[in-house]
Amino acid sequence: MPETRERQDAAGTDARVRHVAVIGAGFAGLCMAIRLRQAGIDDFTVYEKAGDLGGVWRDNTYPGAGCDVPSILYSYSFAQHGRWSRSFPRQNEILAYLHRCAEEFGLDAHIRLGTEIVSARYDEADEVWRLRTSAGDEHAARVLVSGVGQLNRPRYPDIAGLRNFTGAAFHSAEWRHDHDLTGRRVAVIGTGPSAVQFVPEAARQAEKLYVFQRSANWVVPKPDREFGRRELTLRDKVAPVRLFLRGLTYVRAETVIYWAIRGGRLAKLAEYVARKHLEKQIAEPSLRAKLTPTFPIGCKRILISDDWYPTLARENVELVTEPVGRVIRTGIDTLDGVHRPVDTIIYGTGFLATEFLKPMDIVGRDGVALQDVWKDGAAAYLGITVPGFPNMFMLYGPGTNLGHNSIIHMIESQAAFILGKIREGGVHEVEQAAFDRHQDRLAADLAGTAFAADCNSWYKNAEGRVTTNWARRTLTYRLATRRG
Fold first, then answer.
1. How many C-alpha atoms does 203 have within 13 Å on its Cβ side?
2. Is the separation of the CB atoms in 409 and 76 below 8 Å?
3. Which class in CATH covers the domain with range 162-218+264-347?
4. Would you say 294 and 215 are in contact if contact means Cβ atoms under 8 Å apart?
5. Residue 137: which residues within 8 A CB-CB, separation 6 or more?
6. Omega of the bond leading into 89 within 30 degrees of 0 (cis)
7. CATH topology of domain 5-153+352-483
8. Are 188 and 317 in contact (CB under 8 A)?
9. CA-CA 20 to 30 A from 413: which of 207, 300, 401, 473?
10. How far is the C-alpha of 298 from the C-alpha of 424, rounded, in Å?
């Protein structure tokens, strides 16, 4: 991928006021940048704290990393191609796709790598956002767009003694590729979407693998396969075929999967499929009981895997459901007094999804800090904008995550909304009344979904309130963003 000097170097202080500043060069930030370019708006900069673009697909390089959304949907509608090698894309293919998009749409000169924005303050007199980087450099823009999303900061478990451990310990999003698991005694804490992908890989290498589970998840079969040469050619060269397959997959997500997370007959059917999947792959009754969820399907993210259950049935793997009491120098003690000696701990404990925009210090009108506004939980009008923060917009913000479809569809809706406001010019700020109406509707909608059921989920904040998710169809959201 060609590099430009601006992409290679961190940004110094820039006295010029840019039209738009975008924070983050993952799927969301790049989508916004592409839409700006397509609209003929070139006065923008994308600030990326890391040394490369890609967001979660740059960071999550653990063995088996991939997407749980079909590749035909996990891509921009305006940058479709048929070169995905399989039904569900792997991390390396997704990252390559993002690099290709950045190159094809001419984003290189707009991206400043190694530039972390730590604060943004609204200057009411000049109607601009004053940005400061971790290096102390200053920048300014009339419009501020956050593309950092929800899954950008690893979450570590609150367990006593984590720092006492003398072996290797790391989060799955910060995988230690220099640490060979072959012949080691390994503990994995967490059994979520990342763990379901890397645990099977780790089990093939480790001498002994302990998987510590807080609660069982619903797991369904993964209809994944590699595409043959003829099918690849057809998908790549015949656009109508690609469009038909994308549309078919989208409709299935908006109907069958959507209703499965809203309770009723389809939810019962989904649970039946998941139970049969468990019964087919786990013969031992006590292990099967440990792996049977106690909450409605969809309360936590539904996992898709064909090798998760067989991995947990391996002789060198032990599923531990007793709560972890503490970590000591040589391993992990559970509350029942059992010590399990390990030399490696891997945290598959997800991300700080409900701590939106942290640790950035964002201050709007009248010196009001965004985190103070959000002290009872993050919220935004359509997940995009907040009263008191003029010309500040978010992609993949509060109340926009999904449990049934591709987040890329939501991001494109948000980018279109933001682009519309930018084209109008001037200063845009959502009215408090509109914000409140949206929050009331969203809360009522969420109450009717599995998201609000009794389970410990990353969808919820510390008080148990769902702050991450959208409760209705993506088409409903798109129409809402078009109305503004």
1. 21
2. no
3. alpha beta
4. yes
5. 10, 11, 12, 13, 14, 115
6. no
7. FAD/NAD(P)-binding domain (3.50.50)
8. no
9. 300
10. 39
Residue extents of the structural domains in the chain:
5-153+352-483, 162-218+264-347
Mean pLDDT rounded to a whole number for the chain:
95
CA distance 186 to 201: 12
**Cα of 352 vs its chain's centroid, Å:** 10
Scanning 169-291, the segments in alpha helix (DSSP H) are: 195-205, 229-237, 239-252, 258-260, 265-281, 285-290
| pTM for this prediction | 0.94
* Domains 5-153+352-483 and 162-218+264-347 fall in the same CATH topology: yes
Going by their DSSP bridges, the two strands 392-394 and 117-123 should be labelled as: unpaired
- In this prediction, residue 13 carries a pLDDT of 59
What is the three-class DSSP state of 165? coil
Q: Work out the pLDDT band at 14, boundaries 50, 70, 90.
A: low
Q: At what angle do helices 27-38 and 407-424 cross, to 10 degrees?
A: 40
Convert the pLDDT of each residue in 105-131 to its tens digit.
999 999 999 999 999 999 999 999 999
12: pLDDT strictly greater than 90: no
From CA 232, how far away is CA 248, in angstroms rounded?
18
Give the distance from CA 46 to its chain's centroid: 19
Sequence length of the chain is 484
pLDDT digits (tens, 9 = 90+) for 63-96: 999 999 999 999 999 999 889 999 999 999 999 9
- Cα–Cα distance between 484 and 478 in angstroms, integer? 10
Helix (H, G, I), strand (E, B) or coil at 81: coil
